[in-house]
Every structure is written in C-alpha cells, then in structure tokens.
Amino acid sequence: MKKLVFPILVFLLCVGAISSTYFLLDHENPKITVSSTPTLACNVTFNDLMKNASASDNDNIKSFFIEEKSLNDIADYAYLTYVAIDDSNHVTKQRVSVNVAPEVKEYHIEALKPLQIQLKSSLKMDEYLALRNECGWDIKDTFIVESVDYNTAGIYDAKITAKKHNNVEPLYASLEVADFKAPRIILNTETYRDWANKSYDDEYFLSFIDHIEDDSDDVSELSDKVIINWKEAMSPSSTGYMRRGGTYEITYRVTDSEGNTGRAVLNLILDVPVYNTTEGEE
C-alpha cells in the first residue's frame, strides 16, 4: 500500500500543476471595438483609419493593424479588415464597411512622357502610362493600346484603355513608332522655296541641318558623314547651276558606328524668275 502512495501523490501533483497552468494561460481572443464607420478620402492615411477602432484583451495586445496592403485595395473593396493579435498569438479579425469619397474612385489615364516607341519593340506600360484617381494616387492596372503597328514606323492615333478598370474613359494620344537607335537628322525646315537660274553646292544644303541626335556616337563626327543626294535629285550642271524649276526631294542620310542609318527629307521648290522687258518709247 505504501508503495502505491508515492506514485499517486506524484500523479496528483502533476495534474494539479497542469490544471493550474491551464487556468493561468490566456484562452480568450482579443476584442475589437469599432467606434464609427471609417471614411476614405484623399488626405486619409492608414493611421487615420486606425483611429476608428480599438483592441483590448485580458492579455497584452501585441499587434493591431489593417490587413489590406494599400488604400487602393480598400477603395476597390469598400471595406477594410482590422486585425488584433495578443501576446498569446490569439487573432481576431473584423471586417468593416468603408465610406469612400467620390474623388477616390474617379480614375483617369495619364501619359507620363511622350509616347515614342522603338521600332519592333513593345510598349513598357509602367514607364509610359499611369492610372490615377483625382487624389493623384497610382492605381495598379495594365493597359490595352489599340491602332498601333509596332513593326511599322509612323505616328499613330492610339486608343489606350485600362484593362481592369475598363469603365475609365480611354486616353487618345499620338504614339510615334520609329528607329530611335538610328541617328536623327533634324532639319530647320521640311519645305523651302528658292529660285532657279542660280548655282547650288553642298554648303547650301548643309545649312538646312539644325542638329543631329544619336544614342552613342559623337554628333560632331556624324555631321561630317552626312550624305546629301541633291545632285542626283536635281541633275544640275557641273557647276551646280540649275535652270529648271520644280519641286525636288532632297534626302539626307547618315550612318552611325553601329550601322544604324538616319534619314531626313527636304522638299526644295524652285521657281523660275520672270523678267519683265520694256519696249522702247516711240
């Protein structure tokens, strides 16, 4: 009998210790109290939204926060979720409806910079376009660009819509597709009117070049490499003299060190002078 007393005593002590530990532990989840319906407007922050609720527990509150990661998410869902965690890692969540101000939900598409796309390349949406509300917040979305052929150089009237927010008014903008890696010859005019019955030379046509642009080469070196086809286009005499009038398409070309060729065109209109003759007086 005495041999049984000790094991029984140990068992009872263990049960007592476990029971006391159980009752001393926190078994209740935190409580969240919402004082008023939150309102989301342009100047509202996460800290402002936290002021509409509080958390309590018979243990300490370790963390109290809003589950949604962005104000845009809250605007889209029209609700937010308060989360409270105590020191015993008990979690309470409470979803609350949110009053969303109209300007937060009014979206428009903006072009961040001129829409100039490298030939045979795709448009980097985040670099060129943004969806924003009237508060100036960036809204996560992708875009659909219509009426543009990225494989053909030209200036297109593009229609741009937001994929997710497809009810937003489209953005209509000019989009240029070109070989921007090639040198660019910028002329100070595209059309010029002059006279026949005079001589022309290389210096005359070089004067129409305003400047040259390139992504890698020295532009002063490129200036010396410009080829102008004015003799082929106009067929002047050996001295450069032009007797005929008409409209002539003069082409400028330059090739950089990477083998990319830039081109520009000058339309030269030559008028033939009319000389008045005066008959002798009788």
List its traits.
single chain; 282 residues; alpha+beta; 22 strands; elongated
Structure description:
The protein has 282 residues and is an alpha+beta fold. Helices cover 19% and strands 39% of the residues. The strands form eight sheets. It has a four-stranded mixed β-sheet with strand order 9-14-13-12, with no helix packed on it. A four-stranded mixed β-sheet has the order 16-22-21-19. The N and C termini lie far apart (168 Å).
Strand content: 35-45%
The quaternary state of the protein chains shown equals single chain
Kindly provide the radius of gyration, computed on alpha-carbon positions and rounded to a whole number of angstroms: 39 Å
Record field, number of beta strands: 22
H/I helix tally:
7
Q: What best-fitting shape do the alpha-carbon axes yield?
A: elongated
Overall pLDDT confidence: 90
Distance between the termini: 168 Å
Protein structure class: alpha+beta
Largest β-sheet summary: 4 strands, mixed
**Spatial ordering of strands, largest sheet:** 9-14-13-12
Order of helices and strands: HEEHEEHEEEEEHEEEEEEEEHEHEHEEE
Q: Roughly what percent helix?
A: 10-25%
Uncertain spans, ≥5 residues at pLDDT below 50?
Answer: 19-24
